[in-house]
Amino acid sequence: MHRFAIVILCGLLFLSACRDEQPTQPTLTTVPATATVATASGQTTIPSPQPDLSVTPATVPGGQIFIPIAPGGETETGDALAAIPTEPAAVAPATAVPPSPEPDYPAYTGPPLDRDKIGVQIYLHRQDMRDIVRHLQALDAGWVKTQVSWKLHEPRPGEYDEELFGELDRLVDAAANNNVKLLLSVSKAPEWSRPTTEEDGPPSDYGRFEDFMRYLATRYQGRVIAYEVWNEPNLRREWNGAPLDPALLVELTRRGAAGVRAIDPGALIIAAAPATTGINDGINAVDDRNYFGGMLAAGMAGVVDGFGVHPYGWANPPDSRAGDSQQVSASHNNHPSFFFADTMEDYRTMLAAAGAADKQLWATEFGWGSFDNLLSDEGTAAMPPAGAEFMAENSEWEQAVYTLRAFEIAHDWDWAGPMFLWNLNFAPGIGSAFSESGYSILRTDGSRRPAYWALEFRADGS
Q1: pTM for this structure?
Q2: Which pLDDT belongs to residue 305?
């Protein structure tokens, strides 16, 4: 009993000592209700669910700010243990989001572009029409253009190539079914109709051309919106076998227009665009301004609904002029024909002086070439072919910037009709050995160049 009493007494003394000792209080971390982060437009207040959460905002195309937030919410256990309070799970430190890379295309910041003014020329032969349609939809193009080589489509009098016309039929149907207007550019007389088989040129009998245009209008009545009559007729290679006389082009256009209007009077007739070359030797080429003036003097305004123009910028930015004291481009910078804005405004001035200010200028071809990221058939980096060396001066990025700016400039010209970018898909269609491929907004492997992305994501609600 004595030993038991001693044990009881010791226990009571121990409990008393424990009561007199003050417990250690846990250290509490105060979690702020909000956290402030910097954004491109100032400061933004966001909920802060975790203490000491390091937040790094990342800007992505479109201006959105993405903030990394630690995950939270209810625990899903699937049994009654979920109702029992437990200690909060440890939260791993937040990892800062790396900055987003630069966008792959320049952002358009101008006024909304009228879809009805945006067109693109395509390479049609043996292409997948579904892909063509997808591209037109992605670009939100209101117009599409393709060239009709008369000599290939009618290789013998009255005989029409089934494969080529089959491709054209599918394009006509696809354009009509997808709310895209179609421009056909018709040129290159068959060898059987010409006095020479060298290069390309007009027929000896313009009635033959009238018949072909009538055939096109009959086949595509009400579905082809416009026809451009011939291509760059101030060049020998396009008008060989006859003098480089604009009066002859006016007569050919008159006959071609008669063939179309006899069947489809609502179709528009567009005068052929002269080539901008800076050459005026009368043999290889006639200066485009001189030739355009000759067209007007010979009465072209009374024949057509609009005038084609090819305001290529070569390697010059669209805002630059031949009269600028300093030039960006190392070549093709000393003549107005090499400058986008000069060509458009000079032609407009000539139309007004001729009393034809009511006729719009249709840029049936324009664009800037670059061989960035184009591959040769051997898989090596492609280089511009002879005669197109100036394309080495423009990067893909500049091609995109210049294209956007040209569309923006034309937006303010009520006298400018549809603008057809040259071109969508020649690079994957024909390879990189040709200068046409440098202008393509698809690369040789079919991937999209910055100009494509820039047009697809232009800031106009499309």
Answers
A1: 0.79
A2: 98
Alpha-carbon torsion (373, 377, 383, 388), positive or negative: negative
CA 459 to chain centroid, in Å, comes to 13
Residue 223, exposed/middle/buried by CB under 10 A (0-12, 13-18, 19+)?
middle
Give the mean pLDDT of 326-333. 96
Q: How far is residue 193's CA from residue 209's CA, in Å, rounded to a whole number?
A: 9
Q: What integer is the mean pLDDT of 223-252?
A: 98
Residue 338 has pLDDT above 60, yes or no: yes
Long-range contacts of 253-258 (CB under 8 A, 24+ apart): 253/229, 253/300, 253/303, 253/304, 254/303, 255/206, 255/207, 255/209, 255/210, 255/213, 256/186, 256/209, 256/210, 256/213, 256/227, 256/229, 256/230, 257/213, 257/229, 257/303, 257/304, 258/210
- Whether 150 has a pLDDT exceeding 80, the answer reads yes
Tell me the CB-side half-sphere exposure of residue 143, using CA atoms within 13 A. Answer: 27
Write the pLDDT tens digit of every residue in 282-315: 999 999 999 999 999 999 999 999 999 999 999 9
Q: Please check whether residue 242 is in contact with residue 201, taking contact to mean a CB–CB distance below 8 angstroms.
A: yes
Please tell me the predicted confidence (pLDDT) of residue 102: 56
* Helix or strand holding residue 270 (H, E): strand 268-271
Please name each of the domains of the chain with its CATH number.
115-365+414-422 (3.20.20.80)
Helices 206-219 and 246-261, interaxial angle, to 10°? 40
By C-alpha distance, which of 250, 256, 310, 255 is closest to 278? Answer: 310
